[in-house]
Write a structure and sequence with these properties.
Blueprint (H helix, E strand, L loop, with lengths): L8 E5 L2 E5 L12 E5 L6 E5 L6 H14 L2 E6 L5 H4 L2 H8 L3 E2 L16 E4 L2 E7 L8 E5 L2 E5 L17 H18 L3 E4 L8 H25 L9 H15 L8 H16 L9
Parallel strand pairs: 4-5, 5-6, 10-11
Antiparallel strand pairs: 1-2, 2-3, 3-4, 7-8, 8-9, 9-10
Helix pairs in contact: 4-5, 5-6, 5-7, 6-7
Length: 281
């Protein structure tokens, strides 16, 4: 069984445990967070984002379930990126539990619907549609907790993964999470990567401000580079994306520029769509 001092395992609160996969990288930070959630008095649990197809990681998750003396009742995905989902079907099969996601390709027991209420692990979870990072991204509201997947990370900011992700959707999703956190008195964000966020409103305000500032910087850089490009021309758009990245992300290590290029492309298309004042609302 996993040692209680295992640095990959963090008990956020009774019934809330993070198990971090050993897949660190530029897009995954320290690794993907798998969340084990249950009421402390329940005999079953919900597992969110089983992570990569890594037997060692799944063994660690099962050890924590055994430590808590709970069985897996339900497996959920925040979205289909492989660092969250690759091992989900195998994990759910071994656990004998249904797997559900917004994308039917990942679901074995029906797709998740916006505002759906799920009772499992002694908890009540509400499904929040939060597209933008990807089109299938969802978050889960569980009382004082919001499980945000990659829509909001615990450190740094996320990528709007064009073409599947769209900036307009992402800005709306941040607003949904901000409103929900305020309404429910949320005390913790449980992200897909990075540490738990213990000041949710301040962090979500930072995310919204960051997007406003970054969008303004992209718009200014694009204007300085000359007339708007034909966004229907892949060659023109790709060159403009690279030129904007070089200006706006000049202080960012270049190995992160490909990820930045995805967000810049999404922002240029957002601006080209004619948003009033070229800023998010």
């Amino acid at each position: 069984m996993t040692d209680a001092t295992d640095p990959l395992v963090s008990a956020v609160a009774p019934g809330v445990t993070r198990v971090r996969a050993q897949n660190p990288g530029p897009m995954t930070l320290d690794g993907t967070n798998t969340w084990i959630l249950h009421d402390p008095g329940a005999r079953s649990a919900v597992v969110i984002d089983p992570g990569p197809d890594d037997p060692g990681h799944h063994r660690r998750v099962r050890d924590e379930l055994e430590r808590a003396d709970v069985q897996v009742e339900l497996v959920l995905l925040t979205h289909g990126h492989l660092d969250h989902s690759e091992g989900a079907e195998a994990f759910a099969a071994v656990a004998g539990a249904p797997l559900r996601a917004a994308d039917p390709r990942w679901s074995t027991a029906g797709t998740l619907e916006p505002q759906e209420v799920i009772d499992a692990g002694g908890l009540r979870l509400t499904v929040l549609a939060t597209p933008g990072h990807t089109s299938d991204s969802v978050s889960f509201a569980i009382g004082e907790y919001l499980c945000t997947g990659d829509t909001v990370l615990g450190r740094g900011t996320t990528v709007v993964a064009h073409p599947d992700g769209r900036l307009a959707d992402y800005l709306a999703s941040l607003g949904v999470l901000r409103d929900r956190a305020d309404r429910d008195g949320v005390t913790h964000l449980l992200p897909g990567h990075g540490p738990t966020v213990t000041e949710p409103l301040a962090w979500l305000d930072f995310y919204l401000a960051h997007r406003r500032d970054r969008l303004a910087a992209v718009a200014a850089a694009a204007r300085a580079l000359g007339p708007p490009v034909n966004t229907g021309s892949e060659d023109e758009l790709s060159q403009r994306v690279q030129d904007v990245v070089a200006q706006v992300y000049a202080d960012v290590p270049q190995h992160l520029w490909p990820a930045a290029a995805l967000s810049v492309r999404a922002q240029l298309l957002y601006l080209a769509a004619g948003d009033p004042d070229n800023r998010p609302t």
